[in-house]
Amino acid sequence: MARKNGFTLIEMLIVLMIVSTLTIIAIPRLDQLKKAKEEAHMLEQLTDDLLYAQAYALTHKQSVVVVFYNAQGRYRMTERYMLGTVLLDRTLPNPWKIELSTLQNPLTFLANGNVNKSGTVLLKNGKTTYRLVFLLGKGRFYVQKL
């Protein structure tokens, strides 16, 4: 009696068909996941940069000025005044735009970590809009999806 070692052609084709069907179903979902991760990374980067500006103001006992460039995807952080030493100049990924809503430039983190004014900045990515809100008081801010 001979032993059968291996798979038949039909078995291999069935397995290949199942794997290819699962791959076709999973690829569009991976694209959506990639976009969501890029969006979350951009928002986290912006939040980290603003926390850096606040921490820099506290540790160096000097104000840090943050300028948001309206209708562009760009912001800049400098020491003391708008033309001071540049701490950070960041451009957001291509579809993102910054729109000043109630906040007026420049936003300043004072030496005690507080902001000099409150207001709202809108972050737009095509159809998705986020609101970045700066609160008066202890220099707090938050990002909210609209």
Automatic annotation (TrEMBL):
One of its GO terms (cellular component) is plasma membrane. It comes from Anoxybacteroides amylolyticum. The chain crosses the membrane at residues 6-27. Its main location: membrane. This is General secretion pathway GspH domain-containing protein. Keywords: Cell inner membrane, Cell membrane, Competence, Membrane, Methylation, Transmembrane, Transmembrane helix. Pfam families: GspH (PF12019), N_methyl (PF07963). It is a single-pass membrane protein. InterPro entries: ComGD, N_methyl_site, Pilin-like, T2SS_GspH. One of its GO terms (biological process) is establishment of competence for transformation. NCBIfam families: ComGD, IV_pilin_GFxxxE. It is found in: Cell inner membrane; Cell surface. Residues 44-132 form the General secretion pathway GspH domain.
